[in-house]
Amino acid sequence: MVDAILDPTGGTRVKAASAVLTPQRVRLAGATIGLLENTKQNAALFLEELGKLLRERHGVATTVARTKTNFAMPVSAELMRELADACDAVITGVGDCGSCSASAVADGVAFERQGIPAAVICSDAFTVTADAMAELREAKGYRYAKTAHPVAVLTPEEIRKRAEEALPAVVEILTGS
């Protein structure tokens, strides 16, 4: 099959009714937001900046920062449970390469299937990979926030600017408005 796309995570496909997998979105004021970074260069700083902006502008009460052990693998069941138990929503990324973009989308879909609203951040150079993973996870049309590529080489000031630019999409994805 020449046009087949293999799931690099080794996961199984699960049917979903729509790209918005959990209809319940989050109210940001007073919320606890998980920040799941994937060890890619500048991912932690990008998510930290988003967390600051969400606290300052949208009344988020607190953020819970966690790190995946491998950017190309799905979030572990243990880490998923921890974030699902502690957080009202999760932001994950930054997808700044093919495998980490696919993995970030797989994580977002997995959180959504657990009833946790999730916003995924991917660089615009890897939307084909991100979209392919969403389709493999039976979540065609899954929405994620995009940022210009690359992220890894940016200065802290440039990361702050990118977080500002991504904030409206993240808020819309998490809140549904």
TrEMBL record:
It comes from Amycolatopsis pigmentata. InterPro entries: UGSC-like_dom, UGSC_seleno. This is UGSC family (Seleno)protein. Pfam families: UGSC (PF24696). Residues 5-175 form the UGSC-like domain. It comes from the Bacteria.
